[in-house]
Design goal:
With 240 residues, this protein is mainly alpha-helical. Helices cover 68% and strands 0% of the residues.
Length: 240
């Protein structure tokens, strides 16, 4: 599961940890006779590899571990916490793992909210209704999410900081940015009944009345938004 380029120390010591668990008749040993052993072994091996790399200061990228093990990120975190309790009983969860899980949860919540809002706020994607189709809608959705990820990296750092509330309010800022840059013939979502002609094209931040309407619609805290304004304005300039 470590893949090419993995540290030899991580591979060697990780395998030693796996052998120790097997000798202790741990869950890994019980999986050997299970029909679902390959998938379950993958999750447990990925967890041991990650914890070993973390301890040695040479963590294996999570993306590589979940891809090679054929598991979801959610299953990965569950397995890591489980194996940590077995390998290091009584020790607290590593701070790096706690932060990583928090960042993953915040991004997951943001994606679910973005996915939910997109069809309502951008019914024809980022193009006019006359030229919209499923492909342009899908491309627009992907582009908008990429813009959010760039903003998240620039505002909270490449390590993916920001708690759930901070990340959600950044998403609201990016949605405001995207809405304000829509072509006039693409402004067909229900939100425009509230915003109307209050938003000049490519005007960020939106004028105060439009912002208030948008924040109320998305249940956002204006004070949190205002704290992000200067950073998002810089993101807007960088994206140009």
């Amino acid at each position: 599961v470590c893949g090419e380029g993995a540290s030899p120390r991580v591979v060697e010591e990780g395998w030693a940890a796996v052998r120790g668990l097997l000798e202790q008749r741990d869950k890994l040993a019980n999986l050997a006779s299970c029909a679902q052993a390959p998938a379950s072994f993958g999750a447990q091996f990925a967890a041991v590899a990650y914890l070993t790399g973390l301890r040695l200061g040479e963590p294996t990228p999570v993306e590589r571990l979940v891809r090679n093990a054929g598991i979801s990120v959610k299953d990965f975190f569950g397995s890591v916490e489980e194996q940590h309790l077995r390998l290091h009983p009584g020790e607290p969860i590593p701070e790096a793992l706690r932060r990583l899980k928090e960042h993953y949860m915040a991004a997951t919540v943001a994606w679910k909210k973005y996915d939910q809002l997109f069809a309502t706020l951008f019914p024809s994607g980022f193009v006019g209704a006359a030229t919209a189709d499923q492909t342009t809608s899908d491309d627009s959705k992907q582009l908008g999410w990429c813009a959010f990820l760039v903003a998240k990296c620039l505002v909270f750092g490449a390590s993916g900081g920001g708690n759930v509330l901070d990340v959600y309010h950044l998403l609201v800022c990016v949605i405001e940015l995207l809405l304000s840059h829509l072509p006039l013939d693409a402004r067909g979502g229900a939100i425009w009944q509230s915003l109307g002609a209050l938003v000049p094209k490519e005007h960020y931040p939106m004028p105060a009345p439009a912002r208030a309407a948008l924040h109320a619609e998305l249940k956002a805290d204006p004070d949190r938004i205002y704290k992000l304004d200067s950073a998002v304005a810089k993101v807007s300039a960088d994206l140009r």
